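Task 17 of the worksheet. Students: predict the tertiary structure of the chain below and write it out as structure tokens. Keep your answer in the requested format; marks are given for formatting as well as content.
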Amino acid sequence: MGNKTFIALILLVIVGFVGYSSIFIITEKERAIVLQFGEIRNADVQPGINFKIPIVQEVRKFEGRVINLDSPTESFITVENEFLDVDSYVQWRIQDTQKFYTSTNGDTSYANTLLSAKVNDGLRAQFGKRTVIEVVSGERDQLLNEVTEQIDIETRDEYGIEVLDIRVKAIDLPQNVAANVFNRIRTEREREAKEKRSRGREQAEFIRANADRQKVVIEAEAYREAESIRGEGDAEAARVYAEAYNQDAEFYAFWRSLRAYEESFNNGADIMLLEPDSDFFRFLRSQEGGS
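Model answer:
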């Protein structure tokens, strides 16, 4: 092998090394910065194929996805000076790579330590303003939302970290106060139940009274309408009777007598004591109904 060929191979190897060292790939799951002699030259490297100066520049890659921080159980004091053992977790991700690198040196473990301290301080402050009942059942969501918003603002500004969510997995009461707390919760729930039952009875009485009033009004209107119709019927009947009587007064008297006979002798066991010349039998004595 000649000198020229050897030199060409060396140059080829150098070019290949330089080319390989100049290219780096950032995936969608990663965040990265480019350093030159320790100083940040590019803090917003886009996903895809990128280039750097070999040896002179260095690439630092970080996790771009959501990171879960499972905080250790901590004891917090409520406004009633009651201790609670709280087990929480945090979900966060890198929002500003430059701030994240300069504040944590790109160390995720160190970032978790800083974030855990802030979360504990925030939870301790919120627990200290609330009672045990409010923390356990009443205002837990509001408490966690306030802590998340507050810490997210601080960590974005200080560490370039976006806090997505802070949640409490469990709240354990010390054995010496658990019974008292549960009794207070039970008493509070019973009081609320009594109030709701009382409001329910009040509404039931109102509905019942309203229904009774409507019943009276409907019955009165129905009775009034019935009496009006009955009066109109009686007036019409009287008019018809009057017209019939005026057409043939003698026949009308005869027809009324027949009705009286029918109603009087309807029961075979009935007995009537009358004078033979009673006016009741005048239509039986003669065809004209005379005496």
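Marker's comment: The longest helix spans residues 175-247. The chain has a mean pLDDT of 80.
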